[in-house]
TrEMBL record:
GO MF: molybdopterin synthase activity
Function: Catalytic subunit of the molybdopterin synthase complex, a complex that catalyzes the conversion of precursor Z into molybdopterin. Acts by mediating the incorporation of 2 sulfur atoms from thiocarboxylated MOCS2A into precursor Z to generate a dithiolene group.
BP GO annotations: Mo-molybdopterin cofactor biosynthetic process
More details: This protein is produced by a bicistronic gene which also produces the small subunit (MOCS2A) from an overlapping reading frame.
Keywords from the UniProt entry: Cytoplasm, Molybdenum cofactor biosynthesis, Transferase
Pathway this chain belongs to: Cofactor biosynthesis; molybdopterin biosynthesis
HAMAP family, per the entry: MOC2B
The EC number(s) this enzyme carries: 2.8.1.12
Protein name: Molybdopterin synthase catalytic subunit
Family matches, as Pfam families: MoaE (PF02391)
Species this chain originates from: Neovison vison
PANTHER family, alphabetized: MOLYBDOPTERIN SYNTHASE RELATED (PTHR23404)
Length: 170
């Protein structure tokens, strides 16, 4: 993990900050005016199933946008116990064509409900040891409320509708 150092000598006390732009409601990370470096970016949904270890950094980087002020993440990990039993790992299987289609529907539903910019859903298949991520969901939006609600909806709906099965190795 990286650390951040702030050197107070790097701040100029003479610097004047520009006045804040007016608030804009219901923007899905859209620029406030044409003078913001003319940033335009198409929304994207990234869905991936893999047997490889998931990277939180990789998934979060996929949804970062200069048009957005929020990135919300859900990271589901394997815990070391279930109903009093010691868990070694979880084994995941999926019916991939249907699973991908269902996740695309979830992304579409999210876009109907909230003004979000990018959505990424990565799910691990095969064996997932204790403390490793089995799923990472990331959503970017102009404001935190929308991305937080979208991430919560995504994981709840995925667990209810997507044909992914897990088996405990105890």
């Amino acid at each position: 993990m990286s650390s951040l150092e702030i050197n107070s000598s790097s701040f100029n006390q003479e610097t004047k900050l520009p006045s804040s732009p007016p608030l804009v409601e219901d923007s899905a990370c859209e620029p406030l005016g044409e003078d913001l470096n003319e940033v335009e970016e198409n929304s994207k949904d990234v869905i991936k199933f893999t047997s490889e270890k998931l990277s939180i950094d990789e998934v979060s980087q996929l949804v970062i946008s200069p048009l957005c002020g929020a990135v919300s993440l859900f990271v589901g990990t394997t815990r070391n116990n279930f109903e009093g039993k010691k868990v070694i790992s979880l084994e995941y299987e999926a019916y991939l064509p249907m699973a991908e289609n269902e996740i695309r529907k979830i992304c579409s539903d999210i876009r109907q409900k909230w003004p979000v910019k990018h959505i990424a859903v990565f799910h691990r298949l095969g064996s997932v040891p204790v403390s490793e991520a089995s799923i990472i969901i990331a959503v970017s939006s102009a404001h935190r409320a929308e991305s937080l609600q979208a991430v919560s909806y995504a994981i709840d709906t995925l667990k209810a509708k997507v044909p992914i099965w897990k088996k405990l190795r105890v």
